Amino acid sequence: MNNIESINYSNFFNNSVIASQILFDSSFKFSSLTEYRKLITEKLSISSGNLVVPEQVHSNTVRWINKNGSYQNTDGIITDNNNLILSLQTADCVPIFIFDQLNNIKALVHSGWRGTKNKIINNAINLMIDRQSQPSNIFVLLGASIQKCCYEVGEELIDYFDDDCIYQYNNKIYLSLQEQIRVDLLKLDIPLENIHVDHECTFMNNKLSSYRRDKGESGKMISLLGHY
Ligand SMILES: [Zn+2]
Questions:
Q1: 3-state secondary structure of 98
Q2: Residue 220: what are its φ and ψ, rounded to 5°?
Q3: What does the alpha-carbon distance between residue 57 and residue 117 come to, in Å, rounded to a whole number?
Q4: pLDDT tens digits for 93-150?
Q5: 45, 120, 174, 200: which could join 167 in a potential S-S bond, CB 3.0 to 4.6 Å?
Q6: Non-local CB neighbours of 5 within 8 Å, separated by 6+ positions
């Protein structure tokens, strides 16, 4: 019925919530993300009135959401409202899906190097803990994003990250955002077995959106988390 391709992560959450990363449809003439999001929601038969859209700015700001709509200067959104569907857009940055089934708390977090450096993941997890989540009930999935094989960074970034998240070879420096986020989650007492990392590299897989690879030509993948 629809020709939408996506990576479905719902299994990781026991299918008690739908978690997916929608691949960018390059046949769509890219005029605006708003229009693109509308197309996606129509194809998935989601009411766009249920969507929560963060206007991402690589900040570490996470907001508790009770109402649909757009939120400026926001890179993480959390809700316990079952009518809302959280969304996020990425092309290389890490989309982080978080779910506490016991308390029915869902979160989507956008974490590139700035967000990871500024510990947006801590802000998200702490906000959930403020709302009675226990770390042992929090499950976290890191979606497809640029991996250390392709994520070369300048030496000015080295000091911001743990040593074992930085790799050097052939006089080049590579960063693993996923490993840093995983380490940060373990420090927040999230159990190892509650964390899953998709090691699919957006830069290497041409079906995935990569800003590094395609610059302004790159589309965006839309992550969705909710009941739909
Ligand atoms: Zn790669």
A1: strand
A2: -130, 145
A3: 14
A4: 999 999 999 999 999 999 999 999 999 999 999 999 999 999 999 999 999 999 999 9
A5: 174
A6: 22, 23, 25, 207
Architecture of domain 6-147+178-226: 4-Layer Sandwich (3.60)
- Residues lying with their CB under 5 A of ligand 1, a single-atom ion: 147, 149-150, 201, 203-204
What is the distance in A from the centroid of ligand 1 to the CA of 63?
A: 31
CA distances to 21, 48, 87, 155, 182 from 3, in Å: 14, 19, 19, 42, 33
Residues 133, 72: Cα–Cα separation, whole Å: 26
Ligand 1 centroid from CA 199, angstroms: 9
Query: What is the 203 CA–ligand 1 centroid distance (Å)?
Result: 5
The rounded Å distance from CA 146 to ligand 1 centre is 6
Beta strand extents in the chain (DSSP E only): 6-8, 18-22, 51-55, 62-64, 69-72, 76-79, 85-90, 94-100, 105-111, 138-142, 166-169, 172-175, 195-197, 221-226
Q: Mind listing the pLDDT tens digit for each residue in 41-81?
A: 988 988 888 999 999 999 999 999 999 999 999 999 999 99
Output the CA 131–ligand 1 centroid distance in Å.
37
pLDDT for the residue numbered 1: 38
